[in-house]
Amino acid sequence: MRPITIDKDDRVVPAPRPRKSKRKSGPSRSFFGGGKKKKTASGKAEPRFSTGAAFSRLGGMTVEITDRISAPFRTEKPKRGGRRKPAPAWRKPTLICGAVLLAAVIIGGVTNFMVRTEVLDRSAAWIDEQQQALAEFFGLTVQEISVIGRDKTSGDDILKVLNVKRGDSILGVDPEAARERLETLGWVETASVMRRYPDEIFIEIRERRPYARWQIDGRTGVIDRTGAVVSKKDEASFRYLPKVVGPNANEHAAELFDMLAQTPELFTRVQNAVRIRDRRWDLEFDNGVKVLLPEKGALQAWKQLNKLQDEQKILDKDVVAIDMRAEDRMYVRLNADAAKSRRVAGNDT
């Protein structure tokens, strides 16, 4: 099959003519053809088209087609132009700063508008009103407040810090916030708050145990073992407790009383323990005798005092104060009458 060639103007390019070969003469010629010459209707050979041949032009691309595609399709990539001029270095920071400044102006304007028009307050009030209306419609309002574990804590104080009254929406009660407010009360050590739908607030508290009385700046209150103030009133029902006096005495009371409890009989006679410069203690007994304990070695001094009391009843004599701060000796101060009689007796001898 003869191929067809198409130029760029969609014209068929004629195929080159084949060269004519010289005819053979002699016996061979007569043997094959009888010596007669074939004539053609025209002197020129016309191109022949096969039934399966076609051609087409796509864009600037010329394709030569025969019964088979003799050349693959080729696409030409567009030529790129010249190199782009780079943007100035100041353009990007300027755009960023401008965008930030615009956002700040918009936010400031909106905030100022909301503050001046009280939009937030009005919206919050409206939401509360709708919530209350829905709670009343569905019966979700507080009708009962149950408290267990309360002994010395005032019921009025609980209701005051709880800030909930009958008829309030139970959905508006925050149990965690209510628990934190309850634990600010002096007697309450721990608390838990739950909502029991549809209409009950359930509270469970654990109260602190009174441990001692603490006097500071002329006022006396009740503290627990950790030193936390459970009551700012010096109630008569707690007068049996020992009293510590002075700044930070509440924080060291448990340490002192654990030491004194090693000699229970002598400990029961201690009325007050005065904290001196937040370093040591002065003990005041029920008969008015004062014992000055050292800063270091207070336990050994306390045991020595207990031994003197057992053997000599030193606290029951005419003693005003016993100074045990020295390591190798002890100083005893007598009352005025005993000191005078001793001086007279010394003069007589």
Automatic annotation (TrEMBL):
It is a single-pass type II membrane protein. InterPro entries: Cell_div_FtsQ/DivIB_C, FtsQ, FtsQ_C_sf, POTRA, POTRA_FtsQ_type. GO terms for cellular component: cell division site; plasma membrane. Its main location: membrane. It is found in: Cell inner membrane; Membrane. Residues 1-12 have a biased composition (Basic and acidic residues). Coiled coil: none annotated. Residues 140-208 form the POTRA domain. Residues 1-49, 69-88 are annotated as: Disordered. The chain crosses the membrane at residues 93-115. Keywords: Cell cycle, Cell division, Cell inner membrane, Cell membrane, Membrane, Transmembrane, Transmembrane helix. Residues 17-26 have a biased composition (Basic residues). Essential cell division protein. Belongs to the FtsQ/DivIB family. FtsQ subfamily. This is Cell division protein FtsQ. It comes from Sneathiella chungangensis.
